[in-house]
Specification:
Elements (H helix, E strand, L loop, with lengths): L2 H4 E2 L10 E2 L6 H9 L4 H7 L5 H16 L3
Antiparallel strand pairs: 1-2
Length: 70
């Protein structure tokens, strides 16, 4: 998925915090769940408007950015 299909930022939505596209769930919430030991399934159960494909694509984009060669 293209980044814009996964998440976006808009100063008018949650002060510009990155949110999943089409909904107002911050991507930080996913990271907080994972950091707290919760599973992706737990997150998706808590936020049913977020699509699994979006979360997996977000994690892949984050991994790619982290491992990108400078």
């Amino acid at each position: 998925m293209d980044r814009h299909e996964v998440y976006h930022t808009d100063p008018e939505i949650l002060g510009g915090s990155p949110v999943f596209t089409g909904i107002r769930v911050p991507v930080q919430t996913l990271l907080d769940y994972l950091e707290g030991g919760e599973t992706l399934g737990d997150f998706l159960a808590g936020f049913p408007t977020v699509h699994r494909e979006q979360t997996v694509s977000f994690l892949e984009l984050a991994k790619d950015a982290l491992l990108a060669t400078p």
